[in-house]
Design a protein that fits this description.
Layout: E1 9-12, H1 23-30, H2 38-49, H3 54-61, H4 66-77, H5 81-94, H6 99-110, E2 114-119, H7 123-132, E3 141-144, H8 145-148, H9 155-165, E4 172-176, H10 179-187, E5 191-194, H11 198-207
Parallel strand pairs: 1-2, 1-4, 2-3, 4-5
Helix pairs in contact: 1-2, 1-5, 4-5
Length: about 220
């Protein structure tokens, strides 16, 4: 690494970055009697997850447990509780590592970069990821939203991350699929890039001078 690249800590989001997350496809797979085509998949994704605010946002925050979440979503959407429970139970199966991102993560680790994670993640899924995927061993440390009771893009979760990582914002580079989360990080002095795929993320890191051409 060059002297310019050495201080940077690279921070990964999880859903749709390191782990597969395509909720519309998941809904079609789990509820074919309700979600019948692309239009209904888009509708039910919005209704079920509310843009990761509302009921699901509180699940991410760690202030709502699974039984309460199921009842809330059922009452609000009219879906049968069993259908809601089926989707909630399917999420861990959806969260499978993305091979190209895993390869990037491992290259960065071999190049000497310190890696962290910052993920909006309900506690049951956080425990599942920790128990099921060795790739988490690449990280020095990380934060799940449900354990600090703040969600991205709230400033408090970035403050908690900086305290845990024990470095100033200028030494942190966030890779996140959400434009809102990227903008919030940048507003606090982080470097941040919106993630589309591993190749684009690697190109952004190189162009930003955060990693060497040889990484």
């Amino acid at each position: 690494m060059s002297p310019a690249a050495a201080p940077k800590r690279i921070v990964f989001d999880f859903g749709a970055v390191l782990f597969h997350w395509q909720p519309a496809q998941m809904l079609r797979r789990e509820l074919p009697h309700v979600v019948t085509d692309a239009a209904s998949a888009s509708h039910w994704e919005t209704q079920f997850f509310q843009g990761y605010t509302g009921d699901w946002g509180e699940f991410d925050r760690g202030t709502v447990g699974v039984p309460d979440l199921v009842q809330r979503i059922s009452r609000r959407t009219g879906l049968a509780p069993a259908d809601v429970q089926k989707v909630v139970d399917a999420v861990p199966r959806e969260l499978q590592p993305v091979p190209a991102t895993v390869a990037l993560l491992q290259r960065l680790q071999r190049a000497g970069h310190v890696l962290h994670y910052l993920s909006n993640m309900p506690e049951p899924y956080a425990r599942h990821l920790e128990a099921s995927h060795d790739v988490l061993g690449c990280f020095t440390s990380g934060i799940f939203s449900s354990r600090v009771h703040h969600n991205k893009p709230e400033p408090a979760i970035y403050a908690a991350a900086m305290q845990l990582f024990d470095v100033p914002a200028s030494e942190l580079v966030l890779l996140d699929d959400s434009a809102q989360n990227v903008a919030a990080a940048r507003a606090l002095g982080w470097h941040a890039f919106q993630f589309t795929d591993a190749a684009q993320a690697e190109a952004d890191l190189r162009l930003g001078g955060h990693i060497d051409a040889n990484t």
